Amino acid sequence: MEGQFFLFTLCILLNFGLFNLEAYAAERHPDPDGCFSCHSLEGLDYIDEEGVLRSASIDKQHYYSSLHGSVPCKDCHRKIQNYPHKVENGEVDCSESCHVEEPSQGEPYSHQYVVEEYKSSVHGKGWSKGLTGGNRLEEANHEQDPSCRQCHSNDLYIDADKLPLFMESFDHLDGECGSCHQGEVWLGQFGGHILRRFMGSRWNKNDHNKMCNTCHANHKRMADVERDIPNKDKKIKEKAEPRFILASDSYTTTLHARLLVTDVMEGASCLDCHAPKGFRHGILPDEDKEASTHSDHLAETCAQSNCHAYATHPLNRPFVETDLHDMDMIPSSSNIASWDWSRLKSTWVKVFIILLPILLFLGAASIWSRFFGEKKKGVVFSEIGGDSFQEKIIGRKPKKKAKKKAPVKKAPVKKEPVKKEPVKEEPIKEEPIKEEPAKSVQKEKPKPAPEKKPPTARPEPTSSDIKKKEGEDEK
Amino acid sequence: MKNNCLLTKIFLKVFILSAGFYPFHVVLANSLYQEAVENTHVTETVFKKSLKQIKEYKDIEIADPLSVPPFHKRTVSPKNKSPALCTTCHLSLPHQKDLRSRTFMNMHSAYIACETCHFRPKDNALNYRWLAYEGDNTGFPIPPRKSTKAFNEKKDISAHQAQFKKAQALAPQPGARIAPFFNDDLALILNNSAFFHNIKQEWENGSESHKARIKSKLHAPLEKKGLSCSQCHNQKKTIFDWEVLGATSEQRKEINNNTLVRFFERFENENDQIRIDQLLR
Questions:
Q1: Which of A283, A308, A312 is nearest to A297 (CA)?
Q2: In the 8-state DSSP scheme, what is residue B270?
Q3: Does position A151 have pLDDT exceeding 90, yes or no?
Q4: Cβ of B60 and A44 within 8 Å?
Q5: Which residue among A37, A41, A42 sits closest to B279, beta carbon to beta carbon?
Q6: Residue B280 has what pLDDT?
């Protein structure tokens, strides 16, 4: 009898325990304070004094399926107790811990470590606390640095496009993993969390770039930025240079970006170089010695994850120093690029500066010799190109000169037979261009020869003849 | 004499038949609100007040969406394309000042005509019906939605899905609003009426004092303070006949025994603040 009573009690207790377990799982809903009694209503909108459309209607279904879906509203909006809410009571501090437990260690979950890294970064002056729905205009108008919410919204826990894969995997988790890891609590607390990790990061490299470009591709916004540049022990405020303003544009011309655009994930996103470690919020200015993009750390950054493993070899230093925000790659038609004095640091400019004196000298010499140099009558002398080039550079001097000189010497011999021709073949006189120089001399000479000038004298060519001759010389 | 009677009968038949093809406000001579406006005598005090308001008025320019996005996803309300006379001057979300009620009042303006709350003539008993504010039948009264049992009794959904199940809309068509009628005639003015066009022209061409007179006249028949919650959400007596408006028994129960209404009724003074944990009691 006692045994029966014991068994009965045990069954009752077990049932009670199981019931409670299920009840615990079922009770994990995020609205213990009844906030959705109002906030789930559609159309709770108004237009404020600044003309901004405000909405207090929150998509309940989206919230329950979101990253913060199991976080009660008051874990973040801690001071809200009354209605109407005072704006300051709704302020959120992202570094506070909440009542959700971190799955592996059972500690209250917090973004504290991420916030600390963010605070020490180049964006660290942005808001991580004091965030409310009502002060977005204030942030947009007055803040240079992005707040947490500028980049992070309360997105879905599983993206809609990944949901079928998640569901499929969850079945597997229930069947296969469930043989050892039994119980609804395990599935609820760990299953989804682990699966989500297995399915890969919620943000891929293109998502990173898209996030950065929200601000960095906005030239107007970037032009207003005042950068804090570390200089020895203090920081100097510096107005953004075109190199900074156009950082997104110059990046898109690199192979890093072009690979990602074509969905080849071997490319490198902004964060891969600027925040490769930690929680990936610790972006620092290039001038900071701790920055992953500082010249002291560049090799290590390039070599990370075996992207460019050879980069750490000292002989590959020039590779590491390749400018990945090369202003020369940006079209000069860009308004901002055109007034960038830093473009003078370009290698092209340096080469041009070296060559400029030589070019000037050659040009001046050419002009001087044209006007003041010794002229050879009857010979069109090419200063730089044409025959001169062949003679002086290539070395065909003897051959060419022989050809040129020969007809000049023979010309007087052929005077007599040509004398008779001018009368018969007048129209041919105007076509000396196609003939070789020697022949043209032969044909032109007879014209003036019989009357006034001596046989060696050359007739003055017309302007068209000069042009044609110059053309021949160039050929 | 006989011929005269016959002609009168024919004329009346043609008039009655043709009435079915014309918009209500065209068939009617004047709506009750229009009559009230036209019969208004503007006093000097009211005129001066209106003039002062017109002189001090600053137009609010609707800002572009903010560059800082909201953290939580908001439900997007359909854009208000109301042909209501009031929203020609007032914003499409007209309630701005009262911190406690503005959002709830604007929510109601999506399915309640402005005149329903703000036009309450003492001498005439109004009744309320659905009025089309969008579509081909804009300006016409429309029959209430027939309750679909299948929708309400759908039980093949999980408890998780059930919490997101949207209640069946009471409005018989998108944009429809509950509007006042007097003796089956529409008691308000829409912005496609001749009366409205005349006023608009006068307003655009008029001086400040003329505008002040128009403003005074238009606002004279209206109550500044709208209906209180309990005048519509009440188990005993409301100004609406919810059954006529097509509410199912479930919807009537939800409307008349509403948690939020009970919460709002706890406010006694304008500056009261009430703990939200009382919301769930």
A1: A312
A2: T
A3: yes
A4: no
A5: A37
A6: 66
Q: Which residues pair with A231 in a beta bridge?
A: A234
Out of A41, A59, A82, closest to residue B73 by CB: A59
* Residue contact B260–A64, C-beta within 8 A: no
Q: Which residue of A has its CA nearest to B270?
A: A84
- Predicted confidence band of residue A119 (pLDDT cuts 50, 70, 90): very high
Residue A396, classed as helix, strand or coil, is coil
Q: Which residues of A touch B91 (CB under 8 A)?
A: 47
- What is d(CA B70, CA A155) in angstroms, rounded to the nearest whole number? 11
- To which H or E segment does residue B174 belong? none
pLDDT tens digit sequence for B49-69: 999 999 999 888 889 999 999
Chain A window 59-78: which residues touch B at a Cβ cutoff of 8 Å? 59-64, 66
Residue A365 CA to residue A372 CA, distance in Å, equals: 10
Total residue count of chain B as it appears in this document: 281
pLDDT at A348: 79
Provide the pLDDT confidence category of residue A9 given band limits of 50, 70 and 90: low
Q: Whose CA is closest to B82, among B109, B120, B100?
A: B109
Q: φ, ψ for residue A278 (rounded to 5)?
A: 60, -140
HEC states along A396-408? CHHHHHHHHHHHH
Indicate the pTM of the whole model: 0.72
pLDDT, tens only, A404-444: 555 555 555 444 554 444 444 444 444 444 444 444 444 44
Tokens of A24: 């615990």
Q: Would strands B127-131 and B141-142 be described as parallel, antiparallel, or unpaired? A: antiparallel
- Strands A108-110 and A97-101, how do they pair? antiparallel
Rounded to an integer, what distance in angstroms lies between the CA atom of residue A255 and that of residue A277?
A: 22
**A149/A136 Cα distance (integer angstroms):** 9
SS3 A92: strand
